[in-house]
Design goal:
Number of strands: 0
Radius of gyration: 26 Å
Strand content: under 5%
Number of domains: 1
Helix content: over 70%
Largest sheet: none
Number of helices: 2
CATH class: Mainly Alpha
CATH topology: Helix Hairpins
Shape: rod-shaped
Length: 119
């Protein structure tokens, strides 16, 4: 196998790794955004003014307690998801850089071969 063939195969593998890492980053970002949206919805439900009726006030208080527990659970999930997203971002950046360097090497090799052929 020639050096050009090996470089072409390496470029294909690097591109696949880059694409997989970018897809994983996209999924992590979507999950993080969904959790943020759920937290925003909880905050919006808690911002309504308190009702004057004592029975409705009691129901609202129970809802606020439930919402606080949900907010706590969602914040815990959001922290874990954000950590995953950060790890995926690092992996994607690394594989993107590797693929770019290999593509540049491949292009340089192609350019040098073209110069040799012209001589």
């Amino acid at each position: 196998m020639s050096a050009s063939d090996r470089l072409a195969r390496l470029a294909a593998i690097a591109a696949m790794k880059r694409d997989a890492d970018l897809a994983r980053l996209g999924r992590a970002a979507a999950e993080r955004d969904a959790l943020r949206a759920r937290l925003d919805a909880l905050a919006a439900s808690a911002s309504a003014p308190p009702p004057a009726d004592p029975a409705l006030f009691a129901v609202r208080q129970r809802h606020l307690q439930w919402a606080e527990a949900q907010r706590h659970a969602l914040n815990t999930q959001l922290a874990a998801t954000t950590a995953t997203w950060l790890a995926c971002r690092e992996d994607a950046a690394r594989s993107y850089g590797r693929a770019a360097v290999i593509d540049a090497l491949k292009a340089r090799r192609t350019t040098r071969r073209g110069e040799r052929d012209e001589r």
